[in-house]
Amino acid sequence: MLKTRAEAFAPASIANLGVGFDILGLALDGAGDVVEAEWRDDGQIVIAEIRGDEGKLSHDPQKNIVGIAAQALLGQLHSKRGVTLRLKKGLPLSSGLGGSAASAVAAVMAVNGLLEKPLAREDLLAAALEGEAAVSGYHADNVAPSLFGGIILANGITIDRIHRLPVPSDLHLALVTPNVEVPTAQARAVLPSTVPLRQLVRQTGAVADLVDAIHCGDVVRMARAMEADEVIEPARAHLMPYIDEVRHEAKLNGALALVIGGAGPTLCAVCQRWDIAESVALAMRRVYDRHGLACQMRHTTVSAQGAQLLTTHL
Q1: What digits encode the pLDDT tens for the residues 24-52?
Q2: What range defines the domain where residue 25 resides?
Q3: Pairing mode, if any, of strands 45-51 and 82-88?
Q4: Interval 85-119: pLDDT, tens
Q5: Which of 96, 203, 245, 264 has the fewest CB atoms within 10 Å, i.e. the most exposed one?
């Protein structure tokens, strides 16, 4: 039966996991974005409301991720109907928490929830990627975890290149997001255009070690591999306020490693217990408190579910 309105949630995500630039990511339990979609008969895509963005996001459906993603899915379906969209941002902008991916995924999940015969989750990937590409290009290291949940190896943008990895049972994460924006375009602009061969070998070796450690459920080795990045973090570290100090405090309080979340400025500490992650999150926040910089902190685990359809109305 055709629904008139549907609401969907998509979780935050952490891309790269240190060494896995553009190919590894994981979904976070807790915060995310919500999109409500409602059919309209005039064939238009209308963004009627945006909350939680401090007025920064465009209501133009051709310039907003949710509009682009919804249009891509309707085009995929060859549908002549339109939708009214309402976006509730639960994630800060340009934070390194996969906010653009979460918005795109929530949009396609909501529109899919309106269908009489909804598509399989796998069939939503391409449309969500169209939305995400408007901000950060075609790579699935945020979109795929937000859509499918878990830890994802995204060695491409088609479903056959998306691989779900096992989640170690004792993996806990402490996150801190200072109140500064690091746009993805800026974070990519500082990256090196070439990498020396020896450095490439060490970097690819670390990625292989990380994937193996994940499969083995070895969080200690996983953390060590994540922090072995010789290419991306060194180029971006100057964009992350007080990263060295935060890493020092995190490890003093039991963290195994600390990496930049996606393009940043979120910093993500790897821990083995819930109570340690809680202590680490508080310690990281104290660094920013000392410097008078507002921040958000949380401790969490990997979301196994990914995006969810919350409600539908006939």
Answers
A1: 999 999 999 999 999 999 999 999 999 99
A2: 5-166+303-313
A3: parallel
A4: 999 999 998 899 999 999 999 999 999 999 999 99
A5: 245
